[in-house]
Amino acid sequence: MRGALGTLTGAGIVAAVVTGAGLVVIDRTNLPAFTTSNMAQALTTLLQVAALLVVTAGVLLLRRDARSRGGRLLSWAGLSAFATVTLAVPLSATRLYLFGISVDQEFRTQFLTRMTATAGLHDMNYADLPSYYPAGWFWVGGRLADLLGMPGWEFYKPYAIGSLAVAIVVAAALWSRLIRADLAVMTATAQAAIVLAYGSPEAYGAIVAVLIPPVMVLAWSGLRASLRPGARRRTGWAAVIATGVFLGVSACMYTLYTAFAAFAVVLMALAAAVAAAYRHAQAEGRDATPGPAAVPLWRRMLAPAALRRAVSPLARLVAAGVIAGLIALLVWAPYLLRMLDHPSVDSTAMHYLPESGALLPLPMFNVSLLGALTLLGLLWTVLKFRSSVRAQALGIAVAAIYLWTLLSMAWTVLGSTLLSFRLEPVLLLLLGAAGVFAVFDIARWAVARARLYQPAPVADVRARRTRTVITVLGVVAAIMFAQNIPQVLQTEISIAYSDTDGYGERADRYPPGAAAYFDEVDAAIMDQVDTPRDDTVVLTTDFPFLSYYPYLGFQAITSHYANPLGDFAARTDAIKQWSRADSAAELISALDSVPWRPPQAFIMRSSADGYTLRLSADVYPNDPNVKVFTVTFPRTLFDSPEFTTTEIGPFTVIVRK
Questions:
Q1: Residue 560: its pLDDT value, please?
Q2: CA distance 366 to 194
């Protein structure tokens, strides 16, 4: 246990150092925008090749000596460098991360900005509420940003890249505790490429996803430990404890992946319990006298002695669950306690059904390198399922994804979903890992065939040549996939360059958008209120303002990202009623009568009819699942000494005295 913790810690430290140094160097470059020049792509490919060659050197050293310290350091350094350059170089000329400040990145950046301004687990938007979304990743990032004196939004990019690199290397170190060292690095390299291509826009989820495959193998080995011949009672408990710790920590970061991982672990425990009862029943049947009076297998499986054998996996499941629950309470306790005052909470977080959520994901039939790898992984899992613990663990996890997807489809009848489409990166990682194991077994078979019927000297030469050819093909395939990752992320990268950042600049050097006026808006509010930014409530639907400045929002972006305790629908109704007030006095009275802290400032757009806000409503099961509509406030509603009005660019800033 201590050795494993030391290995994981050492891997994390190496990754943090390499990534930190790489980010500092890349930040000091002066490259053109990725969207206007191929220079960044060329340098990305060059540095990816260099990083993969370092990883290859580490693999070769570990193949000679599984305990090679140099091999481990090279592989960890190469993997962290690979993750860093793959994302940091294409984004080198922008301060924003993938997807910029658009789409879901808007509320994620707002969350990190909030956690930079406060050490408490407060809601990202609403005043006086605990956080609903797990704050673990954002809280750590916010504390680091505050320590470094950086705005939360600006720290998002280096923090996302750095945490991804650390998670990838920690996954490699975890794999090395489960399988041979060189194979662990190869598996981790494939998983790094997959998660960077298909999971990196959601960095705080990707760091959980990349650890799920090795944790599934770890969990299965711990839950089925009692099935091993001659196993002691303590056998496998370290794996059970580690599984519980992972589930607890992941629950502090990403709810959906934690729920899926817990679901898969429950299936594993049930499978291990059934297998234990089955083995006992089989043994009893062999010892019984054959004949008409023989007890059927199913009845022997339900006998007390067989059921006692099934208790061990279930007890281990409960222990892992208790550990996970206690750790999760570190983040979830404030929200759960507040829920006691709100017995009926209506959440629309699961109200989303895109086309990909209505179909079973079948990546193994895509005509691509990844499609071939996942197809090999599927075949390997099926063929090896009876004899390989790894195949069993990955197979149960893959089956859990498809079962979760079918349950999500059925859940639509109840008016919600299980967001199964978001598990596609996890499916790719599971089948990708199995695919690497398949390639490794094929390579061993090819080397063995090269030795057949040959004298020893000739057999050694042929085996060495075969290994060389396979190694070269593997490296070339890795480079082929890796250099295409920026193209897979082209939309996400382009938005990072076209969005206006918190300093009012666009990285592609085109004229900035309305966000260029945010600093003046901020100054206008701060000059007229007597509360700090992180305790000032603002009503606006220009939500990037709340991503760049840690104001409290009276209303959230959409109900899907809103805290269920915040009464999103009721707040929308209140805003609409305010806009229908007959006078400034009636508006002031309505503001003071709501059960929440009323806005101290309004940031709106001007139109011919007055001041406008663009609100949203949930229209699930439609796709898109959000309807946007405009609410207009007549200018006369703010004709009162209690309000001051300032025109700033396209914005009208109204502050209540």
A1: 92
A2: 15
Distance of alpha carbon 178 from alpha carbon 72, whole angstroms: 15
Q: Give per-residue burial for 516-553: e unless 16+ CB within 10 Å, then b.
A: bbbeebbebbbebbeeebbbbbbbbbbbbbbbbbbbbb
pLDDT at 230: 66
Is the distance from CB of 172 to CB of 183 less than 8 angstroms?
no
Length of the chain measured in residues: 657
Instruction: Supply the pLDDT for residue 292.
Output: 53
Quote the Cα angle for 506-510-513, to 5°: 60
The candidate with the shortest Cα–Cα distance to 553, out of 586, 500, 566, is 566
Pairing, β 552-553 against β 610-618: unpaired
Contacts 24+ apart (CB under 8 A), 398-406: 398/427, 398/430, 398/431, 398/434, 399/267, 400/260, 400/263, 400/264, 400/267, 401/260, 401/361, 401/426, 401/427, 401/430, 402/360, 403/267, 404/260, 404/263, 405/357, 405/360, 405/361, 406/360
162 to 28, 217, 501: CA distances (angstroms) = 17, 26, 20
Kindly report the backbone phi and psi dihedral angles of residue 375, in degrees, each rounded to the nearest multiple of 5, phi listed first.
-65, -45
Q: Exposed e or buried b for every residue in 457-481, given b needs 16+ CB within 10 A?
A: eebeebbeebbeebeeebbeebbeb
Backbone angles phi, psi at 590, to 5 degrees: -65, -40
Angle, alpha carbons 370-264-11 (nearest 5°): 65
Strands (DSSP E) contained in 176-256 are none
Q: One-letter amino acid identity for 14?
A: V
The Cα–Cα gap between 87 and 330 comes to 31
SS3 string, 460-510, reads HHHHHHHHHHHHHHHHHHHHHHHHCHHHHCHHHHHHHHHCECCCCCECCCC
Extract the residue ranges of the chain whose pLDDT is less than 50.
none
**CA–CA distance, 381 with 360 (Å, rounded to integer):** 19
Residue 243 bridge partners (DSSP): none
Model confidence over 10-22: pLDDT tens digits? 999 999 999 999 9
Could you count the other beta carbons within 10 Å of the beta carbon of residue 201? Answer: 20
- Alpha-carbon distance of 146 to 119, in angstroms, equals 9
CB atoms within 10 A of CB 592: 8
DSSP 420: G
For residue 450, the model assigns a pLDDT of 86
The pLDDT, as a whole number, for residue 309 is 83
* Bond before 624 cis per omega within 30 degrees: yes
Q: Partners of 628 in the beta sheet?
A: 616
